Design the sequence.
């Protein structure tokens, strides 16, 4: 058996920044939840706060949550675009002109 020869040069694997960013966000949420729910007095305080929420408060929390998700998604998209632009420039062997996130 012969070994196949590579005709194209291999490139380094890309870093999956979106997975890293989303993973950090979910890890932070989990750490915060574990910290808050570990103590009985904090659990009671959270339960009391949830039982006394108004529709306006619930709407505000939903809108803020959607905003955070859009912000994290946008940041991941900007980092991905910058990574692709840098990769394309390094493939061409030239310097990256101007700002990365145009």
Sequence:
């Amino acid at each position: 058996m012969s070994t196949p020869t590579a005709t194209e040069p291999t490139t380094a694997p890309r870093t999956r920044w979106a997975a890293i960013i989303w993973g950090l966000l979910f890890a932070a949420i989990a750490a915060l939840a574990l910290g808050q729910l570990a103590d009985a007095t904090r659990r009671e305080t959270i339960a009391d706060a949830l039982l006394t929420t108004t529709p306006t408060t619930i709407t505000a929390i939903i809108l803020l949550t959607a905003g955070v998700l859009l912000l994290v998604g946008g940041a991941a998209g900007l980092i991905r675009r910058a990574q692709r632009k840098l990769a394309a420039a390094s493939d061409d062997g030239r310097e990256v002109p101007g700002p990365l996130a145009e």
